[in-house]
Amino acid sequence: MSLLGRRLLRLYSVGYAAATGVQIGRETVIRPGARVRREGGGVIVIGEYCKIHPGAMLLSYGGTIRLGDRCSVNPYSVLYGHGGLNIGNGVRIAAHCVLIPANHKFRGGGRIHEQGETREGIVIEDDVWLGAGVRVLDGARIERGCVVGAGAVVRGVLGKFGVYGGVPASRIGMREVAA
Length: 179
Known about the structure:
The chain is mainly β. It has one helix spanning 3-20; strands at 23-24, 29-30, 35-37, 43-46, 51-52, 57-59, 64-67, 72-73, 78-80, 85-87, 92-93, 98-99, 103-104, 117-118, 122-124, 129-130, 135-136, 141-142, 147-148, 153-154, 157-158, 162-165, 170-174.
């Protein structure tokens, strides 16, 4: 992309963020076609040098979405903020991922939509890669350096530098980390 193109994209991003009440850091871009909205109130804060690609949706639903620096959210990923979504630095979210920090209650005899929700939140630490189509459920914590394989469903805690896959996600390896 040309320098002019990058400048126009940044100008668009700053205007979009201002119009929607979203906070973005230096050199962050929200590409046309992405939807970043404070639905039902809430807060969305996106760090520096982040990229939000077309088709991605970040919707607060009264909660908070925080992305650290140098993160990317690829096309058709959906990030909700109901119970709080906190994402560290250098996190890569591939296409078609879904992160929902809330869950419907359904134990009582009444209608599901009348029973409320849990809102434990989701925490994703620094240097994490979520492969295409990963689902991250309410209450999940993905620790620093994890890789989560395509199509995995995450609940609970994924330990540092682990490689995870499956439904539900389980550890299938460890990353080799340079000293």
